């Protein structure tokens, strides 16, 4: 029997999170229903065209292609490690077609092998090879690829396998009870992304009531809210649904389900620092003393909570889910035990889940807690979760400003926005060193973080954009303004940096 490596493919119609505003600007404000339908038709056409082109390319190279249809990004990685020959798993590689947080007309490919998602070096290699193939491309090679694709492409419902694994994990945690969530009312908000499966395929088989779940149908135009657990409108929507349905818990996903957050029955949001605190509490119960790796934007209160209340170690690293995951893996390799890498964005990965950042798996860990509490006779719905974050100090004020660098400004003097951003940061660092009211964070992996006026600020370069995000947390608005003024004074000599939002904030007070 001949063997050919197999690649699975999945598509998400479109994703756009932070850049949603830009997309809206690009869309004609007088757009009618017919325009919307046309936009949707084109968007669907685009992803299907990309999927078919990728399938042809892979089949043309002599590999088997399996199409999964709509799936989540973490499920795609999972298909490289799942042992299920009926579903043609494990596959040798998988490709997610998604626009991630970019506008819907900017779909891209995410590549996975059983070692995880490919990083920059591998992607560069793929692009160079692709350019080479493109240069030697002929009509005959296209016809050959089309012929091979038409005979080799298979379709598999992999999401069925993936969701049954999630269901099995919760049942196991509850002592192999078939319906450990019986009687719980849990609403899901998929924000019209790909996470709608969680209600019918995970929660309902576990016995939960899911009525009132919303925006489960994929729609790349996101007609209700941006699927993003950091977005205020998104959190408001799931909170409202929890109230309207008198639910025990609300669960919200980002578009491709690698991020998530929750809301308890009293409307308390379990996202950002609170979700990290909750996950840390769960993980530190299982692995006392372990190191929790987080992104740079996490609060000082979180460090105190992890270290003083939970007895763990908080390693505040850089922004970026791949950065925190890779750092946790590195710590383990040098003998420092770490079981959780998590970002305020809602990306979170556990060692026990092969460091896969899976929003659905994070929520499974919360469900395990609910189910095992119920199994051991503890009532009170989602209170068991809120009790776990008891003692987390939270700032009265937490704000974020995204200060844009105008790349065409003459002050860049032909240099890159990164060089310009670094120059701003260097100057802020120097100013901070000479300000007796500010203390630079002794250990810091990106940007400039300083404490003062009872709070802190962090100015850093965005991972992707010509932007310097500024986070400020403080015990009062006055203190936040003082921190804001310190930053504003330092950046005012950089005319290509648009600090107007920060300026407005300090003036308003
Ligand atoms: O640096 P920023 O612009 O705030 O963006 C940072 C974020 O970029 C993407 O969305 C990544 O998926 C996140 O892991 C990361 O946190």
UniProtKB/TrEMBL annotation:
<dbReference type="GO" id="GO:0004615">
    <property type="term" value="F:phosphomannomutase activity"/>
</dbReference>
<keyword id="KW-0313">Glucose metabolism</keyword>
<comment type="subunit">
    <text>Monomer.</text>
</comment>
<dbReference type="InterPro" id="IPR050060">
    <property type="entry name" value="Phosphoglucosamine_mutase"/>
</dbReference>
<dbReference type="GO" id="GO:0006006">
    <property type="term" value="P:glucose metabolic process"/>
</dbReference>
<dbReference type="Pfam" id="PF02880">
    <property type="entry name" value="PGM_PMM_III"/>
</dbReference>
<feature type="domain" description="Alpha-D-phosphohexomutase alpha/beta/alpha">
    <location>
        <begin position="179"/>
        <end position="267"/>
    </location>
</feature>
<keyword id="KW-0597">Phosphoprotein</keyword>
<dbReference type="InterPro" id="IPR016055">
    <property type="entry name" value="A-D-PHexomutase_a/b/a-I/II/III"/>
</dbReference>
<dbReference type="GO" id="GO:0009570">
    <property type="term" value="C:chloroplast stroma"/>
</dbReference>
<dbReference type="InterPro" id="IPR005846">
    <property type="entry name" value="A-D-PHexomutase_a/b/a-III"/>
</dbReference>
<dbReference type="Pfam" id="PF02878">
    <property type="entry name" value="PGM_PMM_I"/>
</dbReference>
<dbReference type="InterPro" id="IPR005845">
    <property type="entry name" value="A-D-PHexomutase_a/b/a-II"/>
</dbReference>
<dbReference type="Pfam" id="PF02879">
    <property type="entry name" value="PGM_PMM_II"/>
</dbReference>
<dbReference type="GO" id="GO:0004614">
    <property type="term" value="F:phosphoglucomutase activity"/>
</dbReference>
<comment type="similarity">
    <text>Belongs to the phosphohexose mutase family.</text>
</comment>
<protein>
    <recommendedName>
        <fullName>phosphoglucomutase (alpha-D-glucose-1,6-bisphosphate-dependent)</fullName>
        <ecNumber>5.4.2.2</ecNumber>
    </recommendedName>
</protein>
<dbReference type="InterPro" id="IPR005841">
    <property type="entry name" value="Alpha-D-phosphohexomutase_SF"/>
</dbReference>
<dbReference type="InterPro" id="IPR005844">
    <property type="entry name" value="A-D-PHexomutase_a/b/a-I"/>
</dbReference>
<feature type="domain" description="Alpha-D-phosphohexomutase alpha/beta/alpha">
    <location>
        <begin position="272"/>
        <end position="373"/>
    </location>
</feature>
<feature type="domain" description="Alpha-D-phosphohexomutase alpha/beta/alpha">
    <location>
        <begin position="52"/>
        <end position="133"/>
    </location>
</feature>
<keyword id="KW-0119">Carbohydrate metabolism</keyword>
């Amino acid at each position: 029997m001949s063997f050919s490596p197999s690649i699975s493919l999945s598509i998400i119609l479109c994703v756009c999170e932070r850049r949603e505003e830009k997309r809206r600007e690009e869309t004609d404000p007088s757009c009618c229903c017919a325009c919307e339908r046309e936009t949707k038709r084109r968007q669907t056409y685009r992803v299907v065209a990309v999927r078919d082109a990728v399938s042809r390319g892979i089949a043309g190279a002599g590999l088997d292609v399996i199409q999964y249809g709509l799936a989540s990004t973490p499920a795609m990685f999972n298909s490289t490690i799942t042992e299920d020959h009926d579903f043609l798993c494990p596959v040798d590689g998988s490709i997610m077609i998604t626009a991630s947080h970019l506008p819907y007309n900017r779909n891209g490919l995410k590549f996975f092998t059983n070692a995880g998602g490919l990083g920059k070096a591998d992607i560069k290699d793929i692009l160079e090879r692709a350019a080479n193939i493109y240069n030697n491309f002929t009509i005959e090679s296209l016809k050959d690829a089309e012929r091979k694709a038409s005979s080799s492409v298979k379709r598999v419902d992999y999401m069925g396998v993936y969701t049954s694994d999630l269901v099995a994990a919760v049942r196991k945690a509850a002592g192999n009870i078939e319906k450990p969530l019986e009687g719980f009312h849990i609403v899901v908000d998929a924000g019209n992304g790909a996470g709608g499966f969680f209600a019918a395929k995970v929660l309902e088989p576990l016995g939960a009531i899911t009525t009132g779940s919303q925006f489960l149908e994929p729609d790349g135009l996101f007609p209700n809210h941006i699927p993003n657990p950091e977005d205020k409108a998104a959190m408001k929507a799931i909170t409202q649904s929890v109230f309207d349905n008198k639910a025990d818990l609300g669960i919200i996903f980002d578009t491709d389900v690698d991020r998530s957050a929750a809301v308890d029955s009293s409307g308390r949001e379990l996202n950002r620092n609170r979700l990290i605190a909750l996950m840390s509490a769960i993980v530190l119960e299982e692995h006392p003393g372990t190191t929790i790796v987080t992104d740079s934007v996490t609060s000082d209160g979180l460090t105190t909570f992890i270290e003083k209340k939970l007895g763990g170690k908080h390693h505040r690293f850089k922004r970026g889910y791949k950065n925190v995951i890779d750092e946790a893996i590195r710590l383990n390799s040098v003998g420092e035990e770490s079981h959780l890498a998590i970002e305020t964005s809602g990306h979170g990965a556990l060692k026990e889940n092969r460091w896969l950042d899976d929003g659905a798996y994070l929520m499974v860990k919360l469900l395990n807690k609910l189910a095992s509490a119920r199994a051991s006779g503890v009532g009170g719905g989602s209170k068991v979760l809120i009790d776990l974050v008891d003692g987390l100090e939270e700032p009265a004020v937490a704000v974020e400003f995204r200060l844009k660098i105008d790349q065409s400004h003459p002050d860049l003097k032909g240099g890159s926005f990164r060089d310009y951003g670094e120059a701003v940061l260097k100057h802020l660092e120097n100013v901070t060193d000479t300000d007796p009211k500010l203390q630079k964070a002794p250990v810091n992996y990106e940007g400039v973080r300083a404490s003062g006026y009872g709070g802190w600020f962090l100015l850093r370069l965005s991972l992707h954009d010509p932007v310097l995000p500024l986070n400020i947390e403080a015990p009062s608005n006055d203190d936040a303004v003082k921190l804001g003024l310190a930053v504003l004074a330092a950046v005012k000599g950089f005319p290509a940096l648009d600090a107007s939002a920060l300026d407005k904030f300090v003036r308003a007070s």
